[in-house]
Every structure is written in C-alpha cells, then in structure tokens.
Amino acid sequence: MERGKMAEAESLETAAEHERILREIESTDTACIGPTLRSVYDGEEHGRFMEKLETRIRNHDREIEKMCNFHYQGFVDSITELLKVRGEAQKLKNQVTDTNRKLQHEGKELVIAMEELKQCRLQQRNISATVDKLMLCLPVLEMYSKLRDQMKTKRHYPALKTLEHLEHTYLPQVSHYRFCKVMVDNIPKLREEIKDVSMSDLKDFLESIRKHSDKIGETAMKQAQQQRNLDNIVLQQPRIGSKRKSKKDAYTIFDTEIESTSPKSEQDSGILDVEDEEDDEEVPGAQDLVDFSPVYRCLHIYSVLGARETFENYYRKQRRKQARLVLQPPSNMHETLDGYRKYFNQIVGFFVVEDHILHTTQGLVNRAYIDELWEMALSKTIAALRTHSSYCSDPNLVLDLKNLIVLFADTLQVYGFPVNQLFDMLLEIRDQYSETLLKKWAGIFRNILDSDNYSPIPVISEEMYKKVVGQFPFQDTELEKQPFPKKFPFSEFVPKVYNQIKEFIYACLKFSEDLHLSSTEVDDMIRKSTNLLLTRTLSNSLQNVIKRKNIGLTELVQIIINTTHLEKSCKYLEEFITNITNVLPETVHTTKLYGTTTFKDARHAAEEEIYTNLNQKIDQFLQLADYDWMTGDLGNKASDYLVDLIAFLRSTFAVFTHLPGKVAQTACMSACKHLATSLMQLLLEAEVRQLTLGALQQFNLDVRECEQFARSGPVPGFQEDTLQLAFIDLRQLLDLFIQWDWSTYLADYGQPNCKYLRVNPVTALTLLEKMKDTSRKNNMFAQFRKNERDKQKLIDTVAKQLRGLISSHHS
C-alpha cells in the first residue's frame, strides 16, 4: 500500500518536472535550450517526456489550424477585388493609347513650324557671337601693342602689369584663336626678360651696399654718438620718444613710387651721393644714404611672377654670404683702433640695411631670419674681439676699444638688437684691461723704487712741506713744530706710490663708464683691481727691491719705515674709493682693501732681510778670525776682528732708531744669537783637532767682549741681562774648562739649578778630546813625571764619566 503511494508521489513529481521543462522550452531562446534538454536525458523518464512533448505539439498544431480557418475568408475576398481592378486598368490603357495617337496627328504641323523658328534663332545667335568675339579681339591686340611699347621703353613693372592683365583677363577669352598663340608663346620670354633685368638691378644694389656698408655704419654710429652727447647735455635724462629715433620718418624717405616710368629710377644702383653733406652740422640718417627702390621693384616683380619665394631665398642667401665676409676681421685689426672701427662700421651698416628691409617689406626678411643673422654675427664678433683684444698690451688702446664697443652696442640697440652679450664680453675685457694696467703699473713702480734714494725727504720751506703733505696724507704735530730745514721720516717713493695707486683707481673707473653697472658693481670692480695692484704688482715690486743682492741695511730700514706709513694710508685709499663710487664701506658684500696685509708682508720681508744681512756681515767678520789654537801664551785683549765686528754692530744699531722697537730688538737678539752660535761652531769645528788652554783663554777674552757689548744695551728696550743670555752657552762652557770645575759639573748634572746647566756633555767631551790630544802630544817624553801622569789620568777619568752621562742620557 505504502509502496503504491510512493510510486504515485514520484509520478506526480515527474509530471510536474516535465511540465516545467516544456514551459521552459516554449519560453526560452533556442540557443539556450541545451541545458534544459540535458536535464531531460539525465533523468530516467525521457520516454514519458517524449509522449508529453508529442501531445503538446499536437495541441499547438490544432490551435494553428483553428487560426488559419478563421482568417481564410478575408483572403479570398481580397483576391476577388484584385481581379476586378485588373479589368478596369486594361480599359484605361486602351483609352490613353487612343488619345496619344490623336495628339500626335494634330501636332505634326506645329513641330515643323517650331523647327523653322529654331534655325532662325541659331543664325541670329551666331551673328551676335561673331560680333562679340571681334570686340574681344580688338582690346587684346591693343593691349599687346601697349606691352611691346612698354618693353621697348624699359618700363618693366608697368609692362609686367600689362602682361598680367593680358594673360589673365584678355587672352583667356580669345585663347582658341590662332593669332593668340604667338602672344602666348612670347609671354614666358617677356617674363624672363623682366626677371633678368630686375635681378641685374638687385645684384648691382647688393654689390653697392656691400662696398658702402662701412660708410652706412659710420653714419649710424655718428648718429648714436650724437644722441649720447645730447643725453649728456641734458644731464642723462631718459631719452624722449622711442628707441628708434625717427625711424618711421626715415623709412618714408625710401617709399619711392614703384610704378614710376622714369628709366633713371629703374636703374638706380642703390647708394646716394652724400659726400657734399659731410660738412653739414647734422649727420644724415643712416638709411638716408641708401635707395632701396631696386629691392622693392625686384620684390614686386617676382611676387607678380609667382616667384617671390625664389627671390626671398636668393636675397637671404646673398646677404648671408655678405654677412660672413663682413664678420671676417682683418688679421691686423688689433694693431690700431681704426681697424676695430672699420670692422664695427661694416657690421652696423649691414644690420641697418637689414633692419630697414624688415620694416619696409612684407616678408622679404622676417624677425627669425634677422635674429639668426644677429646670433651668428654676435658669436663671431665676440670671438674675434676676444682673440684680437688679447693681443692688446696698451691699456689706452683697450680703453678706446671698450668705448668703441659701447658705441657699437648702443647703436645696434637703437635698432632693437639685443646686445647684453657684448656688455658681458666687456666685463671679460675689463679683466684684460686690469691685467694691462697691472703690467703698466709694475713698470711704474719699478721705476719709482729703482730711482728712489731711500733717504728721508728733506724740506727747507713751508711750501715744500705743504706740497709733500698734499701728495700724501701725513700728520705729525712734532714734525710740524720743528724749524726748517727738517725731514719727513719716509723717502720720496711713499708719496709717489700713493699717487700712482690713486691714478690706477682713476684708470679703473674710466673703464666702468657707460657699462650700465650699478655703483656697487663699479665699487667692487675697483676694489678688486686695486687689491690685485697691492697684493701682486706692488708687493712683487717691493719684494724684488728687498731681495736685491746689493741692497744695504740703510735701504732696508728705510723700506720698513716707508711701508709702515703706506700701511697707515690704506684707510685714506678706502675713503678715496668711497668718494668716487658713493658706496659706503659698511655696505654688505663690499670688498675690503688688502693694502695693510701687503705692506705688512713687505715690512716682514725687509725685517727678515735685515736679519739675514746682519748675519751675513757677522759671517764675513768671522771669516777674518785667525786663532792659534796651539799657543801657550795668555793674551790680554780681544781679537781685532771681533773688535771691528762689535764696532760695526754698534754703528748699525744706531741707525735703527727710527724702526719700531720690536724690529730693532729682534735684529739685535738675532745678531747676538748668530754670533754666539758661530763662535761655538768655530770652537767645535772638526778642523780644530787640538787646542791649548792658552787658546781657550784668548777665545774667552773675545766672548767677554761680546758680553760687554750685550750689557751696553745697543738697542733700548731689553730687560737686564736678556741680551747676555745669547752667550750663556759659551760662557758656561768656557768657565767649566778654564776653572776646571769638573767635580761640580759631574755632581750637579741633571739638576735644575746646577751651575753648568747649559753645558751639553757631548759638547764638553768634544772639547775635552781636543785638549786631551794636545796634552799627549806635548808630553810624550814627560809622561813619566808624576804631575803629568796625574793630569792625563784626570782627563781620561773625566772623559770616561762624560761618556757615561751621554750613554745614560740616550738610554
């Protein structure tokens, strides 16, 4: 029972599923029916499904049949009505055919009459057309006759206009007539003839302006110079009006009547004669010198002929060639200013012409072309100036060249050309100008220093005193109170050098004029150049004088005094620069003058030279020393050479009274130390192998003479016994040997307060060895005497102990 119920439930489910699938098949797109059918075959009841499907198909067929039966009667009625219309249409066709036949028969006579009228109208039209063509041919013939006449009289531009009208207006109307063929064949020949003539005029014009560009540029630069002079007259007020002074008016001069029939104007070469105008007060405009009508005519002719681009290319090509020729400087341009002037005149003349062409023609040249030419010209000009200006060694020529370049730049700037690179290059030339100035002033300083007598300037009157004070800023109330005659502490080269430094500053200032620099830039330039003058040129000149072989101590002392006063004058040079540039020294980034350092270095070099010179003099005196190291006699006075040396030192240090105290003290101490060191070397030198106590006593007298000199205070300012310390090493060594105080030396050695602290055991041993050898040689045959044996033993014992001290010190 239950099994029957389950089978019945399954049958109901299957039937519902099959119903769902059938609905899905009816409503689903054919392309998507695959998965639905697959679900049928995946099941086990596909047979029953097929039965249901067949049943459903039969139901749909019955519905279709019912629908067709419902609409069939309307279809039959429509066919019946269509058959009736076909009969009526055939009747209408027969009626139209009959009507057409009747109309053709009735209109035959009318067609014949219309054909006759047509022939009459055609004849009338042919006659009228013939008259019209004859009327067209007569103006063509007249125009061609006029063209021939214009060609014969060389009125080429009007002839070209006539030719244009003939070709484009008249000949197209009658071009199918044979007599026009002759005219058409001649038109290209006439055009070529006009082109050749106008091109010949253009070539003459180009050649002429190439030859006269120098004159054109010279006139333009004169105009610019006049404008600058006018600006200076009105106290450098801004220029009134446009930068292009009267350019518009100048251009109107060249607006010639292109259609002029004068043969003379047709063949004008392009350059006007202005030789008679040079005497006039007003310089003619640069473009007033040139007649541009050949260019305008040729441009118009080529434009009319449709070859404007060819003409433009030719003109630009030729002008580029001329530009390269103009920009090629002569090889000797650097020798004279006229060489530079002619070079600049040619460049200015070239660009004045191009600028005028730019503003008076439409497209013959354009701004890009002008800028390209100017860039090329600028680079080549700057390169040429760099090369040739480097050969200039005369600062005056460099200064004149700078003024000429400024005028050149100002002239071209008036015509709208950028000239900043020229002013940048002038800053490079400024450095070269500074170098030439430095070379010139090196010669000036050398002459001043070579011709100076290195003696204080004597003055015998108030007028001479004021003259010196006017040349050099010097104030000394004590010197002012002294009666005449009196002397300045410095020599003549001080005011001369001071004034030459000021002249150098003026020369630097001249170059900075018209460079459009600010006061700060001018101040910085002057200060840097002046620093080079001080630290390099003047410093080298002073060093060369100081290092001369034949210079004496007096000259060196005077140089120290002179440089001291020049060092004090540096603040006045600072004030001088401030006054001419109006830039305060406190301004940020203001360069300071290094004059103080320069004069200090020179003074220190002179001081070192004094020390070296003194030492050389001492060495020369010491070369005269002639000690008898084997003598047994005891002397009672110092050696002659040493007495002379001390006298020389006293007289020398007496001259040092005008030197700064430390310089004199250092020189004196240096001399005493060098003397003490030289005497020690003389005593210990290897050539002196033996010496006696008597020789040592004589050497001791010389050292006492030196100590006496040191105690006498040859230079004020030393504390007590300070100068004597230079000879302390010699004194302790000599006292040790003369007093034979070896027990004290050996006992106290190494203690800070020992009596012979300055005696080195190596030095003592060296000297002892010299005395030991002497003792042995003199007592060869007396060595058996007890005293001599004891003395020899003592020397050997002391030498052994000294060696022990040396070895212990090294260990």
TrEMBL record:
Residues annotated as domain Exocyst complex component EXOC6/Sec15 N-terminal: 52-221
Single Gene Ontology BP annotation: vesicle tethering involved in exocytosis
Pfam family, one: Sec15_C
Keyword set includes Transit peptide: no
Transmembrane intervals: none
Region named Disordered: 258-280
Keywords associated with the record: Coiled coil, Exocytosis, Transport
Positions in coiled-coil regions: 82-109
Annotated Gene Ontology cellular component terms: exocyst; plasma membrane
InterPro entries recorded: EXOC6/Sec15 (IPR007225), EXOC6/Sec15_C (IPR046361), EXOC6/Sec15_C_dom1 (IPR042045), EXOC6_Sec15_N (IPR048359), EXOC6PINT-1/Sec15/Tip20_C_dom2 (IPR042044)
Keyword hit for Transport: yes
Exocyst complex subunit EXOC6/Sec15 C-terminal domain: residues covered: 421-770
Function description: Component of the exocyst complex involved in the docking of exocytic vesicles with fusion sites on the plasma membrane.
Membership in a protein family: Belongs to the SEC15 family.
Protein name as annotated: Exocyst complex component
Recorded name of the encoding gene: EXOC6B
